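User: Hi! I'm working on a homework problem where we have to compare a predicted structure to a textbook description. Could you give me the structure for the chain below?
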Amino acid sequence: MPRNASVILRYGPYSALGLWVEHRTYRLEGLQAVLTEDGHQITLEEVEDQNIVELLVNGEVVFHCNIQELEFGGDGKLDPLCEEARTAVLEAY
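Assistant: Happy to help. Predicted structure tokens:
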């Protein structure tokens, strides 16, 4: 996949510290940073499936994980899931 791809990042609500279940983007910051650094355009899309993160390229899901497995905040460079997602987007066609 060439740089500057359009990536849809779907994410669902999750519970933090046992509090309300709602859509939050704090755990997506590192993932967004890694993909933006590669030049991709990211569109956030809220979905109702709890704890889910999906990356879509050309309408195809190329990566998915549990949102709570992503590191909170940060630049994503030390998060192995962010690197896995980055590779999945780069290999998409």
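For your comparison, note the following. The radius of gyration is 12 Å. Residues 6-91 form a domain with the Glutaredoxin fold (CATH 3.40.30). Good luck with the assignment!
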